[in-house]
Write a structure and sequence with these properties.
- The chain is elongated, with a radius of gyration of 22 Å.
- By secondary structure, it is α+β, with helices and mostly antiparallel strands.
- The protein contains six helices and 19 strands.
- The two termini are 24 Å apart.
- Helices cover 14% and strands 22% of the residues.
- Strands 1-6-8-3-18-19 form a six-stranded mixed beta sheet, with helices on both faces. Strands 10-9-11 form a three-stranded antiparallel beta sheet. It has a two-stranded parallel ribbon with strand order 2-7.
């Protein structure tokens, strides 16, 4: 792809992601390695998705594919829109598609924690696979990472923009989390929202929780929830070494024992109003609402897949795969 085409693809994806009203949607940036893998697949001219077991390069990677038959050029960004337009057949509450309808392409485009995209296209003569044409322009886009760590996780969560970024910080680039930020700048505004008498560290754009609370926004009580925390001699339980990773299951279940927060059984929820990062002072009011706690004859087709099982559970090897494909004509 040319530099102009790359910018068009990335900008359109981020524009669409911004309008979802998400609190954890990440900014997508171009990745040349993903693009190289996409180019290899596009040059194969087979309109289907890679089998994970045979293509380890697709680990943790999602993919959308599209073809335009009878033409020698794509129409960007228009040819990206059939993927997104499947939103009308997506049920956010259940993360499912309407009966006999496809919405997998949309799900991949708005997968909140994906941060990288790489695309390529090829003029195929012929295009084979699930859709066959004597000649077609074949577009492949890869997205990374596409992993659900819990079966109930949604593609994205709704709320105040950049208030639940996966990094734990609230750095924001026009309603999208920007995990590459290290200090405030034009594309790095601090939009963190902190609750329960917390303060904002403007240097890190993170919440500093008051006693009795923890999590990225200080809304979770500082209580250990597992009998495995702080085991007595001779009893089964976690080791203090298990607390080294603040993102681990142990840290989630034993935040007080691990020292990630200060317990306070008398802590009262909503005792103080929420506090916000400095980015809110320059943002428009529509972005800062804080929710309370209480033509030419041609044909085109598209398909999407998460080429790795989207469900990853640390203990059980239970896996699920999302796979969808669709075909439509354009004129």
């Amino acid at each position: 792809m040319t530099e102009a085409e790359i910018k068009t693809v990335v900008d359109r994806h981020n524009k669409l992601r911004r309008q979802e009203g998400s609190d954890n949607m990440e900014l997508l940036t171009w990745n040349s390695s993903l693009a190289g893998v996409a180019e290899t697949w596009a040059r194969g001219c087979v309109f289907e998705h890679p089998v994970k077991a045979e293509h380890p390069e697709y680990t943790d990677t999602g993919q959308n594919i599209f073809m335009r038959g009878g033409e020698r050029a794509l129409r960007l960004p228009q040819d990206l829109m059939p993927w997104y337009n499947e939103k009308v057949d997506f049920d956010y509450e259940t993360s499912t598609c309407a009966a006999d309808r496809q919405c997998g392409h949309y799900q991949v485009m708005v997968f909140a924690t994906a941060t990288k995209i790489g695309c390529a296209y090829h003029d195929c003569e012929p295009l084979t696979g699930n859709v066959q044409r004597p000649q077609a322009m074949y577009l492949v886009c890869n997205y990374w990472p596409l992993i659900k760590e819990h079966p109930d996780d949604k593609e994205f969560t709704k709320g105040v923009a950049c208030s639940s970024c996966k990094s734990g910080a609230g750095w924001c680039d026009d309603r999208l989390c920007n995990g590459e930020c290290t200090r405030r700048s034009q594309h790095c505004q601090c939009m963190v929202v902190c609750y329960n008498c917390a303060t904002v560290n403007e240097t890190t754009c993170r919440c500093q929780c008051a006693a009795g609370w923890h999590s990225h926004d200080c809304t979770v009580r500082c209580d250990d929830t597992s009998d495995m925390c702080d085991p007595q001699p001779g009893q089964a339980g976690y080791s203090s070494a298990d607390c080294s990773d603040p993102q681990s299951v142990v840290a989630e279940q034993c935040p007080a024992w691990c020292g990630f927060c200060q317990p306070d059984p008398d802590a009262v929820a909503d005792k103080c109003p929420p506090v916000k990062g400095s980015g809110y002072r320059s943002a428009s009011s529509s972005d800062v609402t804080t929710t309370s706690l209480a033509g030419n004859a041609s044909s085109a087709a598209a398909a999407s897949v998460n080429t790795r099982p989207m469900l990853v559970i640390s203990i059980a090897e239970m896996m699920t795969i999302i796979y969808s494909s669709s075909s439509s004509s354009q004129s």
